[in-house]
Amino acid sequence: MHAVILAGGKGVRLRPYTTALPKPLVPIGDQHAILEIVLRQLAAAGFTHCTIAIGHLGEIIRAYVGDGSQWGMDIDYATEESPLGTMGPLLTLRERLPENFLVMNGDVLTDLDYADVLNRHSRSGAPLTIATYHRKVHIDFGVLTTRKGEVVAFTEKPSMDYRVSMGVYGLSRSTLEGYTPGLPLGFDELVLDLLATGRPPHAYEFDGYWLDIGRPDDYDRANAEFTSRRSLLLKGA
């Protein structure tokens, strides 16, 4: 099984932690970087090959990870010379990838079964599989619905339930046909194109542990929770 880890971003929202370190290498707990946890999880799930798309401070990632032999994996790299969006780096890799592979952000902390995501994607025949997570947002205000200058409905401090992308995907190489390598391609653009052409992505619903380490408070929470969740996140790794 093959995974692609997207690790080329600048991690602007996580500054100052990412001033001198790429976001996937910020430490979690006393011993591990986020990317190391992800690679241990992938290896334990049976992934044997991984391509890491690097950009900002990418040489630090390459020096830290090496060829992957310390995790029993074969790891290679793709360098992003200019920002290409979420899916753009995959276009230059397309000929190096199998028909079905896993794609994920390099800053995700979760106990998701990565192998099951890829296997479900392969069986579904869908062009793209999106791992999704349930979120609930509480709105602290009374919400008004207006029409032509009149209030037609009112809800006091409602809650909104929805599912969000976890930053983990099963993808088919053929889904990338028609896009130009070297040009930016965002996840949003790919999904909208698939919907517009009547090829809806498959949703892999997950309700375990997931934390997207995008902001300093997310990072602080990850460190606070890691000790108690270490056995969950690194089981079998």
UniProtKB/TrEMBL annotation:
Task: Give residue ranges for domain Nucleotidyl transferase.
Answer: 3-227
Specify the species.
Streptomyces marokkonensis
Its name, as the record gives it, is Sugar phosphate nucleotidyltransferase
Q: What Pfam families does the entry give? A: NTP_transferase
